[in-house]
Design goal:
The protein has a domain at 103-252: Sortase (Sortase, Chain: A). The protein is 31% helix and 19% strand. The chain has four helices and eight strands; from the N terminus they run ααββββββββαα. An eight-stranded mixed β-barrel has the order 1-2-3-4-7-8-6-5. A hairpin with a 2-residue loop joins strand 7 and strand 8 (220-231).
Length: 318
């Protein structure tokens, strides 16, 4: 009986290696468990977002953003006053061309003080909100150029700081105001601080104008300074007035605050808090950078709006 010998190995073949390992079994990846929800921590984060947005917006409103807003409002008011002067519909009294009582914020005059390089549109009213756009005319006084004492107020530091240097006006300086009745020229007669003697009231057929702003360190008004000027040009006709002297709200007095701004503060703060809560929730389920890219501009805009409403609660001559 013959036996078959195994075939001889090919000498050119590579040596046999170890057997291939079995394919690895796929195990499910273990996900890092999310931390448990902490409502108190989320509320604290939202409160910090609100506080940061309000503080940053407050600083911006009193500086860069406020100055930009003042410049924009002045350009808009100048265009409107120029249009009304061209059409002959500019106000000449406490009522407009259609017989309605002038709205607060309506442009009534153009103030030009070359010595201080001031050229500002004067609006009707002296509340804190009105004075954000520029100088304001006290509603219970005549318009510039008319008989009696005209009062114009302006801010010292915030929102363009239009009256920051009026206390430096020397006696004898002349300036102009243009209204729907024409151009009136005034000459400075003196500077008054608290406790100074009051000037003699203008007689019949005479006119005087008083510029008012605050005194004190920047953004911390401590008093009021007044610049008195006499009318040099002929007195203009004075239509009947609905508001007599003193018939204005405390918010329109020097260093008055606008209590009507509380509603705006309440609503804007609610919107800001809601946006902050949504941002905290999105940060948890969405991601850090995605959340801040979307929520950052919204929080900044709401913070500016809320801080502007809060600024209206501060003295109007700030």
């Amino acid at each position: 009986m013959t036996t078959l010998a195994p075939p001889s190995a090919d000498p050119s073949a590579p040596p046999a290696g170890p057997p291939d390992p079995p394919p690895p079994t796929e195990e499910p990846k273990q996900q890092t468990p999310r931390p448990p929800a902490r409502p108190g921590l989320a509320l604290a984060g939202a409160a910090l977002c609100v506080l940061a947005a309000v503080l940053l917006g407050f600083a911006a409103n009193l500086t860069i953003v406020g100055h930009l807003q003042h410049a924009r409002d002045q350009q808009t008011a100048y265009d409107e006053l120029r249009r009304q002067l061209a059409l002959g519909t500019a106000p000449v009294g406490q009522r407009d061309f259609e017989g309605n009582l002038l709205e607060q914020g309506a442009p009534v005059a153009l103030l030009s003080i070359p010595a201080l390089e001031i050229k500002e549109v004067v609006a009707e009213g002296t509340t804190s909100t009105v004075l954000m756009s520029g100088p304001g005319h006290r509603r219970d006084t005549p318009l510039p150029g008319q008989a009696g004492t005209v009062v114009v107020m302006g801010r010292q530091w915030a929102y363009g700081s239009p009256f920051n240097h009026i206390h430096n006006l020397p006696v004898g300086t002349r300036f102009e105001l243009t209204t729907g009745q024409g151009k009136s020229v005034y000459e400075v007669t003196g500077i008054r601080n608290a406790g100074d003697e009051l000037p003699v009231a203008p007689g019949a057929g005479q006119g005087r104008l008083t510029l008012i702003t605050s005194t004190g360190a920047p953004y911390t008004p401590s008093g009021v300074v007044r610049v008195d000027a006499k009318l040099l040009t002929p007195v203009l006709p004075n239509p009947p007035r609905d508001l007599r002297s003193g018939w204005i709200a405390p918010s329109e007095q020097a260093l008055g605050t606008d209590g009507n701004a509380w509603l705006g503060v309440f609503l804007w703060t609610q919107g800001l808090l809601l946006a902050a809560l949504l941002a905290v929730f999105a940060h948890r389920v969405w991601g850090r950078w995605q959340t801040w890219i979307c929520a950052g501009p919204l929080l900044a805009a709401l913070g500016l709006a809320d801080s502007q409403a809060i600024t209206a609660l501060l003295p109007n001559l700030l």
